[in-house]
């Protein structure tokens, strides 16, 4: 099983974005050391007191410069806010800086209304052109516009080693169908809508056709994104998972801020959450799972088998940086990296 990380650069209470970025680099270096395949950074806006990962295109080269082999990418670029050409040009430049190490994850989302307006210079535009924008971005990277297309003569930077890997990211069957129709790899956000994962992955496979793009696929290839906390024991892992559970509860109530410490989270939840059972069925999947390395290895194996995913990318909201690094080391141990 290929294992990767998606990071949001969480800002702890009393700290700054600078501190958060330093911890992201630390986590990426640890991930590379124990055998993770990819390190992706998210895109969130208007939440800078809690999440410093606002601009993947800035954080990616910094992390790539502090690592040697691990692939670095976006999880995700919110394409609804941007020009496909500018995104393609930016990630082609990143690929030229770190050849054969850059991933471009493409998705869409709305967040803080004021931030959305600021990003788009006015009232946000409808996102019903998402498939077209993903295709256009891919054509720019692949050099795949027809000769008579107005964009066919536009050149972008090239590394000579290929192009960035383009992934479609989402949490619905509609995003899965876009990925399948374009013949691109697909990552499903099970930490957002876990019980939809089987339906979305099935939609991806049903829609899949061999890609016309050189950077595309001949066969489906998918990744499951899961919120995971791992500890030495199932109980300790559940205690660490409390940070995610409390953060999700706060977000549901419209409260956004620095991640809660484990102690704060346990107090808010009224105790340590129950350990995650190792025999969960897909319809029972929660937004966050936890366990010892053995339990996590079993859970992730069952989850990927259930939806036919080839890779797993893990996220967590563990507040303490030492605990966060150790959790990822134990996850790697659990899946046999």
Notable traits:
42% helix, 10 strands, 337 residues
Helix content: 40-55%
The tally of strands reads 10
Major beta-sheet overview: 8 strands, parallel, barrel
Strand order of the largest sheet: 1-2-3-5-6-7-8-10
Backbone shape = globular
**Total count of helical runs of at least 4 residues:** 11
> How far do the termini sit from each other?
8 Å
N-to-C order of helices and strands: EHEHEEHEHHEHEHEHHEHEH
Roughly how many Å is the radius of gyration?
A: 19 Å
How would you classify the helix and strand content by structural class? Answer: alpha/beta
- Share of β-strand residues: 5-15%
Low-confidence stretches: none
- On the 0 to 100 scale, the average pLDDT is 95
Your description of this structure?
- The protein has 337 residues and is an alpha/beta fold.
- It is 42% helix and 15% strand.
- It has eleven helices and ten strands.
- It has helices at residues 17-34, 56-65, 84-97, 113-120, 130-142, 173-182, 197-207, 234-252, 262-269, 293-307, 321-335, and strands spanning 2-7, 38-41, 71-74, 77-78, 102-107, 165-170, 186-189, 222-230, 288-291, 311-315.
- An eight-stranded parallel beta barrel has the order 1-2-3-5-6-7-8-10, surrounded by nine helices.
- Helix 10 packs across helix 11 (321-335).
- The longest helix is centred in the C-terminal third of the chain and has 19 residues, at 234-252.
- The termini are close together.
- 49% of the residues are buried.
- The mean pLDDT is 95.
